[in-house]
Amino acid sequence: MKFRIFAILSLIAGSFAFVSCIDDEATDDVIYNQDLAEIQGYLDTTSIVNVKKVYDSNYGVTVIWQELSGSKDTVSLGDTLKVNYVGKLLNNKVFDTSIEDVAKSEGIYASNRNYQPLVFIIGYGQLIPGFEIGALKMEVGDKATVFIPSLYAYGKQGTNGIVPIPSNAPILFELEIISATPGPRR
To answer: What is the pLDDT of residues 54-63, one digit of tens each?
Structure first.
């Protein structure tokens, strides 16, 4: 009798797991499409300098350049980048920055933090995927705004920083690629 009850409970649990996976996938698609609509709504109602625009249909990431350097110094996987950034919610509330003056003016300054450009190796998963996708499309010296659906940002978990990022929130990063040191090529 115990075996039969266990088998039935296991079957029921397995059914819920299967249904849960389908719902999660459907929910992810709904959230992704809502994010794209929210980003488009932001772009439709906000004036942003636009000298070049690229939309990555694989990830839903939009990159809009405010300045093109013309340096021809492209960014490749494995490069070490030095980047100034300002991260914002789509209501323009700054949640993080590498620039001290911006942190102070936005009320998120932390005296124990060393404000300086972010240095990271691109393609090693050190940052959220959308940040890296956007940076890979830029050249050294470019300034651009990268719009990122939540799936490629902070996802369902969001963050609990000074300015929390809500669950499933699309975000944007204003990026300036200061330098790219070539790394090993894959």
So the answer is: 999 999 999 9
Q: How many domains does the chain have?
A: 1
Residue 186 within a domain: no
What span, in angstroms and rounded, lies between the C-alpha atoms of 101 and 31? 34
- pTM value is 0.85
- In 3D space, the residue among 153, 142, 117 whose CA is nearest the CA of residue 67 turns out to be 142
Question: What tens digit of pLDDT does each residue of 84-140 get?
Answer: 999 999 999 999 999 999 999 999 999 999 999 999 999 999 999 999 999 999 999
Q: What is the DSSP letter of 152?
A: G
For the record, the structure tokens of 120 come out as: 């990271």
Phi, psi at 97, each rounded to 5°: -160, 155
Radius of gyration of the chain (CA): 20
For position 141, which CATH number holds? 3.10.50.40
CB 153 within 8 A of CB 172: no
Nearest C-alpha neighbor of 171 from the set 56, 94, 57: 94
